[in-house]
């Protein structure tokens, strides 16, 4: 399996994402949206960074269970109820990403939403991975 990240010089330099990812592999993992739910199904964390850390950890746990690793992520979408807060916390969210998922970014998007399934949730993360 290999992922190749493409960041064309004619596009704005990416910060916290990759413009395009091409992938070769034999298995795909489609990862359901994860929020900051704990094992008991309760939303944890009061702040967006706290919730992002748990949501990303949950996504990576599902990926590991499917036989993948953070390096296999080809696409991630982040849904947030507060895009302004996401932008304000971007440096901290980047540090959380680096600590949990490493320095290689998949193709990503951040989408503002009115609310998520669990009303207390501030952020949800989904994606897909390509694995051997």
Q: Mean of residue pLDDT? A: 94
Main sheet: strands, sense, barrel: 4 strands, mixed
How much beta, percentage-wise? 25-35%
Outline: globular
Q: What does the radius of gyration come to?
A: 14 Å
Tell me the total number of β-strands: 6
Q: Would you tell me the structural class of the helices and strands? A: alpha+beta
- Helical content stands at 25-40%
Distance from N terminus to C terminus (CA atoms, Å) equals 5 Å
The poorly predicted ranges are: none
The number of distinct helices, counting runs of at least 4 residues, comes to 3
Strand order in space, largest sheet: 3-6-4-5
SSE pattern: EEEHEHHEE
Q: Key terms for this structure?
A:
132 residues, alpha+beta, four-stranded mixed sheet, two-stranded antiparallel sheet, globular
Describe this structure as you would to a colleague.
- By secondary structure, the protein is an alpha+beta fold.
- It has three helices and six strands, in the order E-E-E-H-E-H-H-E-E.
- It has helices at residues 48-65, 83-88, 90-101; strands at residues 2-6, 20-24, 27-34, 73-80, 107-112, 123-131.
- The strands form two sheets. The protein has a four-stranded mixed beta sheet. Strands 1-2 form a two-stranded antiparallel ribbon.
- Helix 1 (48-65) packs parallel to helix 3 (90-101).
